[in-house]
């Protein structure tokens, strides 16, 4: 496999041309220069309402359509199976409003998820008189969701299951195909996956994953603040559309889009897909995974070596098992204190908190208001940056301890 060229990757991002080192990428990645240029060009030359027949209108129609197709292609979905909108939070809320269930039907919701993939389903359960079951990892060591912890919750009345592909705090990759197989062993049961923390790191194939719904946000994937939701075509027949009565309902966009797919942002998506390999993404994502594996190995090995740090989730450095989103607490130091001291001494940008995974932090991990320290890297971060980060951490954390 060809070695990953991180210098070439960094050159594509204007924001990386400064002293700030971005280690809060799970909150939002930096934006490709070609995406920025594309948005500027669209607004400067073709910013008209869609649907017009005049020349500029046709150009605008075409660029918007190509953006939608590129978003579908990124997930290996068909264009009529995807919808774009302001955020994954909004799109999941929209889809939750389209489904009707019977009292006593059962829904299973992962408690380690971002609230984006919890609140819509909790509300849907209450609205329909459903029985809500909470899904938690079987082990507090690796914190991994799996079939072994899901199976006891499944029953003939199970209608809907939600979980994340990767937790935005734990960084662990869940085995979605095996989870989907278990869910679909119940006739009529559906699986919804939040892919926001997975999409920047690995290739998505919704057909291979065998999911019914899958959402992620492009502002985590080197693009603008817009999101995409996939819904399997067969499932769409069960949805009660939210759109105006005269809007065609043959596509997911027609059912729940609500004119929320920002034109200039949507039309920039082909630039992102092209950067990530276009029609041949596999080699690109393999190179990204290998490079990210080196980044997380360096940081995890340091954190483990100290003896006074609690790392949450799987501690392996294997990129097949985790992505470089690493959360921890330091014994004897508040998470906020760690980050604020780092802010004062360095140009490394990372954060403290619960990152909207409040139930995970409070109810499962038993953490206080300051939550965890989260360092989240992507492919444009470098091994040198990690080395300097470790030096910064060593200067602000208590003297090393070998005791456990």
TrEMBL record:
Q: Does the keyword Transferase apply?
A: yes
Q: Does the entry feature the keyword Amino-acid biosynthesis, yes or no? A: no
Pfam families hit by this protein: Aminotran_5
The UniProt record lists the Aminotransferase class V domain at 21-389
Instruction: Write the signal peptide boundaries.
Output: none
Give the record's keywords alphabetically. Answer: Transferase
Recorded GO molecular functions are:
transferase activity
Question: Which domain of life does the UniProt lineage start with?
Answer: Eukaryota
Q: Which SUPFAM superfamilies match?
A: PLP-dependent transferases
Q: Which InterPro entries match?
A: Aminotrans_V_dom (IPR000192), PyrdxlP-dep_Trfase (IPR015424), PyrdxlP-dep_Trfase_major (IPR015421), PyrdxlP-dep_Trfase_small (IPR015422)
What's the protein here called?
PLP-dependent transferase
What organism is recorded for this protein? Answer: Glonium stellatum
Q: What is the lineage of its organism?
A: Eukaryota, Fungi, Dikarya, Ascomycota, Pezizomycotina
């Amino acid at each position: 496999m060809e070695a990953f060229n991180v210098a070439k990757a960094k050159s594509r991002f204007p924001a990386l041309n400064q002293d700030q080192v971005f280690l809060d990428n799970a909150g939002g990645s930096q934006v490709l220069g070609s995406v920025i240029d594309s948005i500027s060009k669209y607004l400067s030359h073709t910013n008209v309402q869609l649907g017009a027949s005049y020349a500029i209108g046709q150009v605008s129609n075409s660029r918007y359509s190509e953006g939608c197709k590129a978003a579908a292609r990124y997930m290996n979905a068909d264009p009529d199976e995807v919808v774009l909108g302001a955020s994954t939070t909004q799109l999941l809320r929209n889809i939750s409003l389209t489904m009707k269930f019977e009292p006593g039907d059962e829904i299973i919701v992962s408690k380690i998820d971002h609230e984006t993939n919890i609140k819509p389903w909790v509300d849907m359960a209450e609205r329909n008189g459903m029985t809500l079951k909470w899904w938690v990892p079987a082990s507090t060591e690796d914190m991994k969701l799996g079939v072994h912890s899901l199976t006891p919750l499944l029953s003939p009345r199970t209608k809907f299951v939600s979980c994340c592909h990767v937790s935005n705090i734990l960084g662990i990759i869940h085995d979605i195909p095996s989870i989907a197989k278990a869910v679909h062993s119940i006739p009529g049961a559906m699986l919804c996956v939040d892919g926001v923390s997975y999409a920047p790191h690995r290739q998505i194939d919704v057909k291979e994953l065998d999911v019914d719904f899958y959402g992620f946000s492009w502002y985590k994937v080197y693009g603008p603040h817009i999101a995409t939701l996939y819904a399997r075509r067969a499932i769409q027949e069960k949805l009660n559309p939210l759109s105006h009565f005269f809007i065609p309902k043959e596509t997911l966009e027609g059912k729940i889009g609500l004119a929320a797919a920002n034109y200039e942002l949507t039309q920039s998506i082909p630039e992102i897909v092209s950067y990530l390999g276009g029609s041949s993404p596999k080699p690109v994502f393999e190179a990204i995974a290998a490079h990210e594996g080196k980044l997380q190995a360096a940081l995890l090995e340091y954190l483990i070596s100290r003896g006074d740090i609690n790392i949450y989730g799987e501690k392996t450095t294997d990129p097949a098992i985790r992505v470089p989103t690493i959360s921890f607490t330091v014994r004897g130091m508040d998470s906020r204190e760690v980050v604020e001291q780092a802010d004062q001494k360095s140009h490394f940008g990372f954060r403290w908190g619960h990152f909207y995974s409040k139930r995970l932090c409070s109810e499962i991990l038993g953490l206080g208001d300051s939550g965890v320290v989260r360092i989240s890297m992507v492919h444009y971060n470098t091994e040198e940056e990690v080395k300097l980060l470790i030096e910064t951490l060593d200067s602000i954390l208590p003297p090393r301890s070998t005791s456990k």
